[in-house]
# Entry
Amino acid sequence: AEAEMLALARDARPLLEDRLSRPRRVVPAVAWLADCVASDVGDGAVALLADHAILPLVWTRDAYFVARALLAAGRRDLVDAFLRWCFERAARLDGRWWPRSSLATGEPKDRAFQLDQQLYPLLLLAETGGPAAERYRRAAEEQLDAVLARADGGLVATSETPADDRLEQPFHFSSHVLLWKTVRALGRDAEPLRRLVRDRFTHGGRFAYAIGAGVRHYHDANDLPTALAPAWGFCDADDDVWRATIAYAWSRENAAHFDGPLGGLGSLHTPHPWPLGDLQRVVVARARRDEDAERDAWSRLGRVATWDGLLPEAYDEGDGSVASRHWFAWPVALRATLRR
# Structure
């Protein structure tokens, strides 16, 4: 708290002058991401927090989407500083793996190994480009090699899902879509991996949520790479297996789908509909060129937004009130990016 106070005393005036001098309008979401979620921790490093109040921690998953929104808003400085945090400031489990979550200082908070958490910084670096990408390119290549070295039969096990829940089945589908995208983004041949993932995860005409010790069919609001699969090029939007997976996600068969006047896709981690589920609907609707479905999803998001125009983690399926966490950086950032 003392360090934050001193930083504000030092930086508040130049930051305010810089903001007021900018000709373009700064939308509230991006302003919140830049002013509250982005936390200057010194030495040119910036932590990107899940939120600034209840969970001032870093998940590289959430931070990737925050960084993409900041990059789209012209704040490359913050994105480069976050890459510095990832590759120079953040402590690693066993000297190698980013933990489930970290303190803004870089110290580990929750120590579970999640596959997707190892990939998002590498993907961000590849997509950002510029001096920071050149600076950390070798480290990113070594990190990807280390991830691939963990493969068992071509697939990489994860201890937890992107919802921070433990898995009985060690191989998780959406994390492998992300692995494929990261391999390709770093300029490697990813087609053999794509074919393997399709073959191993296709069960009952759709992509299984997780496989290994049996097969699990489920879809979670946190599994955005599954919804993004056509946009990323993993499959086509008219792919029968993907379409069956999406149909299942918004059906009563899916344990993460919650009924009610404002029912929708959420997560067993916090059992209510999530704005991330509605944002998946936007992504899916765009892939299908379904303007009515996209309009409906945006309408829902407007209804469940908080008084300051931001988005919670989850909302009540009856009246849309906040069910969990008033502020959640991931959906706020994703909505800002998709709105452009």
Q: What stands out?
A: The chain has a mean pLDDT of 94. Residues 257 and 265 are 5 Å apart (CA to CA). The two ends are 35 Å apart (CA to CA).
